[in-house]
């Protein structure tokens, strides 16, 4: 048995996201283009006789109900191992921000346990789907992918050359459940943007301008209704020629830059008006 494995658990942004229907299991059908960015948690998993998960700083989840704990239990159920591991997570990705931080941690735990337990014949993506909707993407190892269903179908897209984005973080949290509950039928319409973006990545012609033009998210309107700060932030940015899009269920916002210099320029402009804006590399 391998002793311990340490992995980086990257955040993701939803470059475009469409809600295409409702399911009988209470989830929504979606189509989205996911891409990883260079903001990441550090996850260390080691063998143990018990299950212990330490997250610093804490995320506010009840003990044993965090996604990392669920990932250990899901892997144990799928492989016949005891649900025992020591997991230490050093958080850098903000919680409830639309960046998939908890799901990425869970994906890292699943991949680490596959190494520690020397698992070679288990469908890790299927295991991940039992933990959370975004977890299959992170387990897949893709940097960019078309994600559909409730998140369990992951179709990797060709890796582009590293691209540059500006991420605008908020101190607020938005519950994904609350945002979906606020969704109205007339909020939908991003499916064309999702498919255009997918095709651009598949053909190797994705550019910053194309991504900006197709960065639509069906969850923007319900997120804005729940969090007026999103409206204000986007308005202030637009006055300075910067169009911000919503990642996931928010409240994190982003824009795709032409290059690194452009990303640093926009981040400086946004910081001058009091926003927590930082340049990052996407899918690099």
Polypeptide structure, described:
By secondary structure, the chain is of the alpha+beta class. The protein is 34% helix and 28% strand. It has ten helices and ten strands. It has helices at residues 67-79, 101-116, 124-129, 135-140, 176-181, 191-203, 208-213, 220-226, 228-238, 260-272; strands at residues 5-22, 28-46, 51-56, 85-90, 144-149, 153-156, 163-169, 245-246, 253-257, 276-282. Strands 1, 2, 3, 4, 5 and 6 form a six-stranded mixed sheet that branches. Strands 8-9-7-10 form a four-stranded antiparallel sheet. A hairpin with a 3-residue loop joins β5 and β6 (153-156). The radius of gyration is 18 Å and the shape is globular.
Topology:
Layout: E1 5-22, E2 28-46, E3 51-56, H1 67-79, E4 85-90, H2 101-116, H3 124-129, H4 135-140, E5 144-149, E6 153-156, E7 163-169, H5 176-181, H6 191-203, H7 208-213, H8 220-226, H9 228-238, E8 245-246, E9 253-257, H10 260-272, E10 276-282
Parallel strand pairs: 3-4
Antiparallel strand pairs: 1-2, 2-4, 2-5, 5-6, 7-9, 7-10, 8-9
Helix pairs in contact: 1-2, 8-9
